[in-house]
Specification:
Layout: E1 6-12, E2 17-24, E3 31-38, H1 41-52, E4 57-63, H2 70-77, E5 81-85, H3 101-114, H4 125-157, H5 170-177, H6 184-214, H7 221-227, H8 235-245, H9 254-260, E6 265-267, E7 276-279, H10 285-295, H11 306-313, H12 317-339, H13 344-366
Parallel strand pairs: 1-4, 4-5
Antiparallel strand pairs: 1-2, 2-3, 6-7
């Protein structure tokens, strides 16, 4: 063994090469740049073996990014500690305007030794696959919206207006089919856009069917089934929430989950002055978007529709109690905030924040862990969210 028994390794990852820097243990320990290695598993194994021969303990870190979690899993399989760092939470000097692979790797090693890095939760391969599938469907839905917008924009330039209220239903499609466009060139564009819209719609349907088929084999299938008993949460929404957030047991309280999703108000306070602003919008935007969309359903009186009965019946009794409590609580909260003349967007954001608390409580109930009656199932009415 060498003189130092512990070593901190910072890795700046890229497509073809990984820059590696080392930090010796101790406040005054040396920080040196080792160089670049190939991104192959063989090169990584060789590096780890070389460092392990001189140090009894190795701790690695690298930023979360497009290279994924393969490097993390490889290092963990070799028996060493590794964390994947949240890039947005890496401390940066305001006057530092030079960014290179060498400096980034050295900075990671130095901050890792100081304990200043925040690790992200790393999913297993199965969970990552479900996340990839749900994101692929989301991308297809965005593409579908874009195609439909292009069709509507083209018809608007031609002076064609659909007289109905609901678009892209059966009646709207029949109306599109009978439209007569005089110019051949514009007719070709319209027909091509309609073909593209149908193709994207088919892709959305196929990805949705793939999600339905994959959920029963997923480790989080029970909690996905339980979440569907919530008002405004269907299968796709439940999968997105769980795929993006992951293991909810790592949140000790609902407040931690709310803060993780960026649904708590920002704050700039000093002395006796307290200033709160809009929500922080930190964390996962996809899960936050789904929660906000689901929260709009709580503007209606509490009830269980015919289509929802089967999903509610599939959930355990304790979950059904929580979901009904959520309906009564959030509906009343929605109306109370509306009576105070709060903007609809602020109201629905506040409801989404409290919805996090009920989701957290459902997860605890599914794990058989008792939650506090006062705070576990939702946020107190006096708490403020998004400026409410």
């Amino acid at each position: 063994m060498g003189q130092h028994s512990e070593l901190f390794v910072g890795i700046d990852t890229s497509k073809l090469k990984n820059a590696v820097a080392l930090a010796e243990v101790g406040r005054d320990g040396e920080v040196r740049y080792l160089g670049e290695i190939d991104t192959t598993a063989a090169a990584t194994r060789k590096l780890v073996a070389k460092l392990a021969a001189k140090h009894s303990r190795l701790t690695f870190c690298y930023e979360a990014g497009p290279t994924g979690y393969g490097l993390y899993r490889l290092i963990k399989s070799l028996g060493h500690d590794c964390i994947v760092v949240a890039p947005s939470l890496i401390p940066k000097r305001s006057g530092d305007h030079v960014k290179t692979n060498r400096r980034d790797a050295s900075n990671l090693a130095r901050l890792l030794r100081a304990g200043e890095l925040t690790a992200v939760w790393v999913p297993d391969e199965r969970h990552e696959a479900m996340r990839t599938l749900s994101r692929a469907r989301e991308a297809a839905v965005d593409d579908l919206k874009s195609k439909r917008q292009q069709i509507s924009a083209l018809l608007l330039t031609l002076g064609l207006h659909y007289p109905g209220l609901k678009t892209w239903g059966k009646a709207h499609r029949n109306w599109l089919r009978i439209q007569k466009i005089g110019q051949r060139e514009q007719r070709v564009v319209f027909e091509e856009l309609m073909i593209a819209e149908r193709q994207v719609q088919d892709r959305v349907d196929r990805l949705g069917a793939a999600i339905c088929a994959a959920v029963p084999e997923w480790s989080l299938a029970p909690i996905v089934t339980a979440l569907q008993a919530m008002r405004g949460v269907d299968l796709v929404a439940a999968v997105v929430i769980m795929a993006e957030i992951g293991d909810l047991s790592r949140f000790a309280s609902p407040r931690e989950l709310m803060a993780y999703l960026g649904l708590v108000p920002s704050e700039r306070s000093t002395g006796d002055t307290v200033k709160r602003g809009g929500i922080t919008k930190a964390g996962n935007r996809r899960a936050r978007r789904v929660l906000v969309e689901s929260s709009w359903s709580y503007r209606h009186p509490p009830r269980i529709g015919k289509e929802k009965l089967a999903k509610v019946a599939a959930a355990p009794e304790v979950v059904r109690e929580i979901t009904w409590k959520a309906q009564t609580r959030l509906c009343g909260r929605f109306r109370a905030l509306t009576r105070k003349n709060k903007r609809p967007t602020i109201v629905v954001t506040a409801i989404a924040r409290e919805l996090c608390g009920f989701i957290w409580a459902i997860d605890r109930a599914m794990r058989g862990v008792p939650a506090a009656a006062a705070r576990g199932n939702g946020a107190p009415a006096r708490d403020r969210a998004a400026g409410t």
